[in-house]
Design goal:
By secondary structure, the chain is α+β, with helices and mostly antiparallel strands. The chain has 2 domains: 3-210 and 325-405, Aminopeptidase, CATH 3.40.630.10; 211-323, Alpha-Beta Plaits, CATH 3.30.70. Helix content is 35%, strand content 23%.
Length: 409
């Protein structure tokens, strides 16, 4: 096994140990103890590869290799290091490891960039703790305000600022970054679907990323005793929520064109076996490659929820996130394909059905993204796995692309 492939495996395995659910997948929520363990590991690796390390006012981690051109914009490589509950070892993490390995290859090959190279490890892409997702990248480009960031709280009522302080992060540092400091952003990610594996193609060059919106829906009724409240006198928030959720798949089928709807989180209050629920909070995630389909379904969902508003049931909908479908940089896509061909690594063009930090950065800089195959198309589960050779191939492409973009010698 070559040194690069061994480093990749070592980093993936090491970071997978920083989980709140050992033996049951990776659970690494933003600003948790596991986050702190992972960020210390990432910062140590950055320093080992000769990078100057800093953290911003969100806890995003940057490792910079200065270029010979003074005050020049950086070519940034990386991804996120948070996870979904009981997720896998590769989602996000593989992209952070890709950034680390690109830096290692710059050092190992004594590559001197003209424009700076930066490795980035971002927080809360998944939205598993504070909701909405893509928090680190949205704040960097200024679409998540400092005020909105400070107002975010987790399910236990802990704010972002409180959580940061607990693990020693400084929320008063600058959060937004001047787009003029970014020359390009490159991200490697596992596909999270079956196309590459079934086609036996090791690399997908991403053309465009799906548009999406995420809603938080609150249904309120009236609590009561499970045994003494007649069925015709109940205002059961869970029953109303269940009826709404059950109809969501039909809206996606009716819209068609690859539109998907998911309810992934549901909280019931007061959550007693013998108490009629008086409040239910659940999420709705709507995605499509066509913005018109997202907007159509969004309106239908709001109408559906409104139909359940009556004397005993109250409803409210909060839109936590809205991102248009994004085409990635034609120039960087061409560069990634060119490097794949030069290296003799087979590739295909592919669209992403998942949201990524790359789609956020595409509003302010040139962005390129590559996928590597996911075994059985699985992701967001403990069984998530990608072959280290595929990762090494993808990282070699990123390394060559980063050399070109940084105008390295």
């Amino acid at each position: 096994m070559n040194k690069s492939k061994q480093r990749i495996e070592d980093h993936i395995n090491a970071l997978s140990q920083f989980t709140a659910t050992p033996g049951k997948g990776v659970t690494r929520l933003t600003y948790s103890e596991e986050d702190l363990q992972a960020r210390n590991y990432i910062k140590a690796a950055m320093k080992e590869y000769g990078l100057d390390v800093r953290e911003d006012g969100l806890g995003n981690i940057f490792g910079k290799l200065e270029g010979s051109l003074k005050d020049a914009p950086s070519v940034i490589v990386g991804s996120h290091f948070d996870s979904v509950p009981n997720g896998g070892a590769y989602d996000g993490t593989a992209g952070v490891v890709a950034g680390l390995e690109v830096a290692a290859l710059f050092k190992e090959n004594n590559v001197k960039p003209t424009y700076p190279l930066e490795v980035i490890a971002m927080i809360e892409e998944e939205g598993s703790r504070f909701g909405g997702g893509l928090m680190g990248s949205r704040a960097i480009i200024g679409t998540l305000s400092v005020e909105d960031f400070g107002n975010l709280k987790d399910a236990d009522g802990i704010s972002t600022v409180e959580a940061m302080k607990k693990i020693g992060l400084n929320s008063s540092l600058e959060k937004q970054r001047d787009p003029k400091t970014m020359k390009a952003f490159l991200e490697l990610h596992i596909e999270q679907g079956p196309i590459l594996e079934e086609s036996n193609i090791p690399i997908g060059v991403v053309e465009a990323i799906v548009g999406l919106t995420q809603l938080e829906v609150t249904i309120e009724g009236q609590a009561g005793h499970a045994g003494t409240t007649p069925m015709n006198r109940r205002s059961d928030a869970l029953v109303a929520a269940a009826k709404i959720i059950a109809q969501l798949p039909d809206l996606a089928y009716e819209e068609g064109k690859g539109t998907v709807i998911t309810t992934g989180r549901l909280n019931v209050f007061p959550n007693g076996a013998n108490v009629i629920p008086d409040r239910v909070i659940f999420t709705i995630d709507i995605r499509s490659g066509n913005e018109e389909n997202v907007l159509n379904v969004l309106e239908k969902v709001k109408q559906l929820i409104g139909w359940y508003e009556n004397e005993g049931i109250r409803t409210s909908v909060k839109q936590q996130l809205y991102i248009q479908p994004k085409a990635l940089s034609k120039n960087v896509r061409s560069l990634l394909k060119e490097k794949s061909e030069e290296l003799g690594i087979a590739y295909c063009s592919i669209n992403s059905g998942a949201g990524h930090d790359a789609m956020v950065f595409s509003d302010v800089t040139e962005v390129g993204m590559i996928f590597v195959p996911s075994k059985d198309g699985l992701s967001h589960c403990p069984e998530e796995w990608s072959d280290s050779q595929h990762l090494a191939d993808g990282i070699q492409i990123l390394f060559e692309a980063a050399k070109s973009l940084t105008e390295a010698e």
